[in-house]
Amino acid sequence: MTAVSLHLPAARAACRGCGHSTVPVLDLGSMPIANELAPTALEARTQERFPLALHLCPSCGLLRVGHDVAPERLFRDYRYFSSFADTMVSHAAALVDRTCAALDLGPDDLVLEIASNDGYLLQHYARRGILVLGVDPAEEAARVAERERGVPTVCAFFDRALARAMARNGTRPRVIHAHNVVGHIPDPLDLLRGIAELLRDDGVALVEIPDAGLLLENAAFDTIYHEHYSYFTVTGLVGLCRRAGLTVLDVERTAVHGGSLLVTAARSGTSLPIRPRVAAELRGDVERETTSPRRWARLAATVEARRQAFRAKLAELPRPIWAYGASAKGCVLLGWAGLGPTEIPCVVDRSPHKQGRFVPGVGAEIVPPEAIDGGARPLPATLLLTVWNLRGEVLQQQRAFLERGGRFITAVPSVEVFP
Question: Domains of the chain by range and CATH?
Answer without folding.
Answer: 82-295 (3.40.50.150), 313-418 (3.40.50.720)
